Amino acid sequence: MGDLSPATDLVPVPSGTSIPLAQMRSVYRVDDVERKLAKLPAKEHESLRSTYERMLEKGAQRFQVKPSGLPAMEHLYGELPNFHDALDDVKRQLALCHDSRDALEIMPMLLLGPPGVGKTHFAREVAQLLGTGMGFVSMSSLTAGWVLSGASSQWKGARPGKVFETLVDGAYANPVMVVDEIDKARGEHAYDPLGALYGLLEHDTAHSFTDEFAEVPIDASQVIWVATANDERAIPEPILNRMNVYEVQAPDRDAARSIALRLYTGIRGAHDWGRRFEPEPIDAVLERMSEMAPREMRRAWMAAFGNARLDKRDRIELRDLPGANPRRARIGFHH
After folding, report:
1. What contacts 295, CB < 8 A, 6 or more positions away?
2. Has this prediction a pTM greater than 0.70?
3. Cross-strand pairs, 111
4. Alpha-carbon span 29 to 111, nearest angstrom
5. Edge-to-edge strands of the sheet including 11-12?
6. Radius of gyration (Cα) for the chain, nearest Å?
7. How does residue 331 score in pLDDT terms, banded at 50, 70 and 90?
8. 148 within 8 A of 193, measured Cβ to Cβ
């Protein structure tokens, strides 16, 4: 397909707390869509016809964004203390494209680690940092490769894949695409759930990715890939070779306490009822929270806040934490 994006002036794009800059980039050719639409038989393939008409209505131009400067990342190092290596890599890539017309390029990332350490949260934070959209695919629930790459319109109930939908329906040419639990992908005998990734993870071939439903080449070369996994042994070697692999450990005690405290402060500050509680939790509660996986902490805090208010207290105590009091129902999760 080649590079579809003519050089244009950088323009600001509203996004969160930072102002990214963008060039416009074509993610498909309008004339390709028009030809496909013209060839459709009358009164047939209504879903496909609707897809082509939507593509023509939206046009092919999308924002290709990058932060306008080196964004503040210190808060991420505090919130994600076990992701410093991955954050360092993102920072290096931001530094390379800073003060230049070059697009932001981040090599596909694989976050490898036990459940609950914050891998998916990291991906969401990166998308927010960069000011792009985000697509999300959970591979543990897939049974066929078409969820990424689309299914032929000849099949009943067929639809485009997630890559196509994120680029065509979204506003950005370089969204963050999260492939969650890639090691749990399983396919039926005729399908490889990861088959589409072989081309999508290669910059040159991703320029002309063809969704099997729409059959129109899409430029997916700017997509920022973040995959998560618990066990690399279940991931094909060619996929691993296309990604930077970061082994993410569970945070140590001090880091876990820091995460728990940040979550407490954030939840308290985000709700009007938070003003009823003390600015910081007591040490014993913070210590108990540090024993939990990061993804469990938010639910635990919410349960504890609620339990404390039921007892008309402005301070969380150990008995408020889920599972701490056998006479209370366990709220949110089992620990």
Report:
1. 115, 116, 117, 118, 120, 121
2. yes
3. 228, 246
4. 34
5. 11-12, 20-26, 61-67
6. 23
7. very low
8. yes
